Amino acid sequence: MSNNPVEKTTFLQRVLQRTGGWYPTIAVFVTQIFASLGVVAADYSIQVNAEFSRHELTSLLRISSVAILATNTLLILFVYLAYKEIRTGLGLWKKNSSQDKGNIDLKAWQQITSLSWRYSAILFAVDLFLVEIPILVFQAVSLNVTINQIIYTALGLFAATLGAVSISLLLLEYLLKPAREALLPPRFEDQLSGDHGFQLSYKLQFIIFVLILTSILLVAPIGYHQMSKALETGDITVLSTMQVQSIVVSLLTIFFGLILASLFSRSISLPLNEILDTFSKIESGDLKERATVTDSDEIGRLAINFNRMITRLDSLQGDLEGQIAMRTDQLRATSEVGRVASSILDPDELIEKVVNLITERLGYYYAAIFIISPDGYWAELRSATGDAGKKLKDRKHRLAVGGKSMVGSAINLRQARIAHDVGLEAVRFDNPLLPDTRSEIALPLVVGGRVLGALDAQSTEENAFDEENTETLQGMANQVAIALENARLFRETQVALREVRANQQTQLSQAWSDVLDTEGNLEFSVGEKLPSEIESTSALNIPLALRDQIIGEISLESNSDWAADDQSWVEAVATQAALAIENARLLEESQQVALQERLVAEITGKIWSSTTIDGILQVAIAELGRTLSASEAKIELKLDSNPLQRPTEEEEG
After folding, report:
1. What are the CA-CA distances from residue 427 to residues 166, 381, 407, 408, 419 (Å)?
2. Strand (E) or helix (H) holding 553
3. Domain 344-489 carries which CATH code?
């Protein structure tokens, strides 16, 4: 129940730990002892002014002692019986048991904060009606004293009552500090609403009023009595007696004032210093520190409000740290999804890793990715997490695009669909394999204006998908969509590249076949071939490869073994030779094409230079025969006996 763990306990705290529920009664008893000291000054003032005889003084002291003892006993019994909740609360606090912080704590807090001033008010009434009035009646009836003696007695007793009340108020307020700390409710609202303490301003006014009135009640009667006596007797020595008595009473009054001032100043300075110490600790960064609430006045309420402010600040900082940590995890997960999306070109592997990352990094209950079927009518499950995901994938689970499901609706509308409470969502597929789902989100996979599918995530908590989570998941969905589109483009590029390579190889093979058919078997050798009866110790055969097509071979023979370096540089030469051969073929081919185009241009020019049909025919056949070195060339014009005709409707039918 303590609002702040105390590392070093004070004497009063140790007494509270030992006595528990008896502590308030003990505090009241100690307060009565110190309050009784004020009776000494009052009795002295009464005797100085009233000048009772020995018999009268003895009788007066006897009845005063009995009355004070009786009233103090009644007050102790009253505190013990009337403040049962305080005793119960402190008893449980002493046992360190986990009590129910309900009405008993609030009632105990209300009682402990009002105990000091309520006790002081009751003490004033009891002393007035059960001590002062009975003593005055006793004097008038039994002792037959004068009216002046009764007045002096009344003034002295009233001064003693004021002193006892003021000392009780301040001293009991101080002694009950550890009890108030122990009974402090956990809720700040209860602390403020249950604080029934005496206001600091009222307390200050009361103390000043008591000091002034007590000084007047103790000192003024002495001057009045001695001056009256001097006038009656004419004895000058009375003035000396008055001076001595005034000095004694003044010193007692000053001592009483010092006690009140000390108690009052400590009731203000101690809690303020504790709050300042708490300020320093919090300023250094310790937001777990709290001010100790031990007072029931404005300072106590200041500490309560300060603690509430720091608690809210600490809670806000904790929430911010939690949000930052969550946002960091989201950014880390998004970055990891981006890394996976940029490094994996296999769509199935990419989708599998993404759904696992979503559940592992973001802690969701279930995640899945759907891809639209080729006909565009279905969203087919490609990958999902958990046992439920495996079963759904084995069943070839699919949802209708635009149907009554979050996924189908997200694809159809091309925007995120969120169910903060799945029980209240009408357009949703309730999957029996996922009974713990409480909230769900479906986001479309959109790239370049095309919808590829949807990302689905589910959580066991309601309202799990706020604006930040939606942005994070949408970013992941966009990355997945781009990666899937890149994978598709990569596959198409690979297919086209394979087709181009196949065509190139076919063209290359055909081109070299034509070259070999034209040139014959091209083979060149240097050196002398070893006789057949002498076998070479080592042969090195390096193919002439061009675009994965072998167009020839380099063969080397030697009596010694070929080193690895030899093979390496021969391979390099073979590569360059193959490129040079291909370049030579291409050059020859381009020259041939250029020659053909030039001849065509020359023949065409000569044909266009002729203006008659006979001339055109003669020029054309002459130039073709000459260019192609033909032994005979012939050209003629004639009409076919069966010219091509457009079929009739009957023939088409």
Report:
1. 74, 19, 10, 10, 9
2. strand 549-558
3. 3.30.450.40
